[in-house]
TrEMBL record:
Keyword match Transferase: yes
Gene3D superfamilies xref list: Spore Coat Polysaccharide Biosynthesis Protein SpsA, Chain A
Domain of life: Bacteria
Family annotation (InterPro entries): Nucleotide-diphossugar_trans
Keywords, sorted A to Z: Transferase
Protein name, as recorded: Glycosyl transferase
GO molecular function ontology, one term from the record: transferase activity
Length: 408
């Protein structure tokens, strides 16, 4: 049971009453008659063979209010794409699977690459971007939710709570960020958010000063959550990173494009757990190490666009301030865990903080060495300007893939 406290500058919608999912869904069915609702599922083919995604689809297939589901399928061969069509065929709602490695979508991607308006990196950001493009191309829904496909504690109430704020026509929200307690198997998870993002934001507030952006970011209870929802018009202008900075980048774009009263966060799950990344202490090109560098650079880039000047000395100050704040947070989390009968390994927590502190300097050096780096994927408005028929091409590619390989 949550409290009702409103902290920060973003509206928080709490889980105060454990409302029945059937009641939420009944309202959402009515909303969907006037404001059609959709869902984006960015997936790796390997997730079809795991335990999480089959359980997720088993619940989603009975959701009564969805007008369209768009699945982005990465790392799939032709045979695997065919199996994916069968797998997702159990969905009762209208749906399409984007075969991102298929020849038709690859050909479109190559054309967009030649125009300089395509994602430069493979990964979740690229997958999500093409799914957003398809939502715009199909023009069937007005509000869309997005969540990951590796949630092992999934319950369809998560989706209902996530999409409700942008589905209710009496609300004026353009965007909703999901949040939840990262507690599973008797321990506190969410290390990157707890031990990097929050203490780094506080360190930046000390080092470069409070500003609206830092206060905005610090208002989100779980800024790295991969679950959010938005109104369809958000998709036209958003520029998202193609690297691990995706979630931070999306929040930064919301800060740039919308006033605070059009944004909110919602408590969408009592329990949440998903696939965990390795800490990768000795490899800054993988796992949580690379993630921490990408996230930190995303914050630095955003602050630079607002006029903050960085130098090596600045980054040293930020690192030192971060390190002290993060170590204090470890004690706080440990005490919270003890009071709740949970486990928290102080040694592994401090190892993570030491790595994150080193990676703040690596991110800073990379930022100074390559200030013109632009990992952002262009907005769909820009893509349409460069290739006016892009939505027709995208829609046709997906339809032709579906027709050829599903036998329909």
């Amino acid at each position: 049971m949550a409290d009702f406290y409103q902290n920060g500058i973003i509206t928080t919608l709490h889980n105060l009453n454990s409302r029945r999912v059937e009641d939420l869904e009944s309202e959402l069915v009515q909303f969907s008659k006037h404001r059609p609702l959709g869902l984006i599922l960015p997936s790796l083919y390997s997730e079809l063979e795991g335990s999480a995604l089959p359980a997720i689809i088993d619940q989603i297939k009975d959701v009564p209010y969805l007008n369209e589901i768009v699945i982005g399928l990465d790392r799939a061969t032709e045979d695997q794409y065919k199996r994916a069509l069968t797998f997702f065929g159990q969905l009762k709602q209208p749906h399409r699977v984007l075969w991102n490695e298929g020849p038709r979508l690859r050909a479109l991607d190559e054309e967009l690459q030649s125009l300089g308006v395509a994602p430069k990196e493979l990964g979740k950001g690229r997958n999500v971007w093409y799914c957003m493009g398809y939502i715009l191309a199909s023009n069937k829904v007005e509000s869309v939710a997005l969540h990951d496909c590796d949630i092992v504690t999934y319950d369809r109430s998560l989706l209902a709570k996530l999409i409700y704020p942008v589905a209710n026509p009496q609300f004026n929200y353009e965007f909703c960020k999901g949040y939840y307690a990262r507690v599973a198997d008797g321990k506190i998870n969410g290390r990157v958010s707890r031990l990097l993002v929050t203490p780094l934001l506080r360190a930046l507030q000390h080092s470069v000063g409070h500003n609206d952006y830092l206060d905005f970011m610090d208002s989100f209870r779980y800024p790295l959550a991969g679950e959010f929802s938005f109104r369809r018009d958000v998709l036209n202008d958003i520029r998202i990173p193609s690297d691990w900075g995706l979630e931070i980048g999306v929040l930064s774009e919301m800060h740039r494009n919308y006033s605070h009263n059009r944004l909110c966060q919602a408590d969408i799950a009592d329990a949440y757990d998903h696939k965990h990344q390795d800490l990768s202490l000795n490899n800054d090109q993988g796992g949580l190490s690379k993630m921490s560098i990408d996230i930190t650079k995303a914050l630095f880039r955003k602050l630079a666009t607002q006029g903050t000047t960085f130098s090596t000395e600045t980054f040293r100050t930020i690192k030192a301030t971060y390190f002290r704040i993060a170590l204090d947070f470890i004690e706080t989390y440990h005490n919270d865990a003890v009071m709740n009968g949970l486990k928290l390994d102080i040694h592994s927590e401090e190892k993570a903080v030491e790595m994150f502190a080193q990676n703040i300097m690596k991110a800073g050096s990379s930022f100074l060495e390559n200030p013109m780096e632009t990992p952002f994927i262009p907005s769909w408005n820009r893509v349409v300007s460069a290739k006016p028929d892009v939505f027709e091409c995208l829609r046709n590619a997906v339809e032709e893939d579906t027709k050829e390989f599903s036998g329909s």
